[in-house]
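Re: weekly structure request thread

Next one in the queue (335 aa):
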Amino acid sequence: MMYKKSIITGLMALTATYSFATTSSCGKVEIADMSWNSASIMAYTDKFILRYGFDCDAELIPGDSIPISNAMTEKGRPDIAPEMWSNAVQTLIDRGVAENSLRIAGKSYSDGGPEGFWVPKYMVDKNPSLATIEGIKKHAKDFPNPENASVSAFYGCPAGWGCQISSTNLFQALKLQESGFELINPGSSAALSGSLSRAYERKQPWFGYYWGPSAVLGKYDMVRVDFGSGVDKEHFINCISKEDCLEPKVTMYPSAVSYSVTTSAFAKRAPDAYTYLTKRTFTNAQMNALLAWMEENQADGQYAAENFLLNHQEIWSQWVSKDIKTKLEKALDKL
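Done, posted below.
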């Protein structure tokens, strides 16, 4: 509670001290605040840096990938979407770029977003073969289903998500059922993360689908299972990710790409602020750690972003000039 009070008091002081921002040449800037935590951290980070570093009148607009992409392309607002995953809206992004209504500023994550099948590192430490799918299949009995020990458990993607299709197709391509595994589709992301958390805290076996960046991969040391196949991106896009994939073949998940996207109008109106967005990128490890902190402290996107800015100058200072860094340091001193 003391932390939140200090933040609120600091923000009130900042509002008074930097009230001139609303009349700056950067003007009003709308930033999409998506419904998942990493995107929210990024949105609040951009809001703070644009407001107190570039004197923009920055505000957040709630929304999700598809409606935000459409609105940016057709209506020219909001100005910025900090974390747009290409596997969800690539067609919309391509259309906006082709029509010169959108610009891709850069990658939200310099090393992409890892998806795959994972096992806890403590299991691999005891049996290194479990880092491979052949080792998993050979030792299927080491992964008993908590509800039915006569079969082995594989935890798939949450029901209704796009990754439910890909994880199901790969479950079939890898012939995991023939090895004794049963596909468990959790009803929600909370159910999936809960199953992994319970297993990890008790040092029990777990095998299933997960993705990054995420709080889970920030909190728990997991190993992505090697299928021994490499990545067949074309087959993944044209078959594995489709419900009507009749002959799924084994392939690792291609690294998902997330872009920081802006309207072309914003890029032209505020070139310095746009340049910042071309440099602002996280690694998965950095975001995983921020998400784990966010979860452990029951913080929202704003407090998580402020924690990042206060404690990780070595990261964000690489995104801005020395003059902008000095302005941001002064603003952070008031938090």
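The longest helix spans residues 37-54. The first strand starts at residue 28 and ends at 33.
Next request, please.
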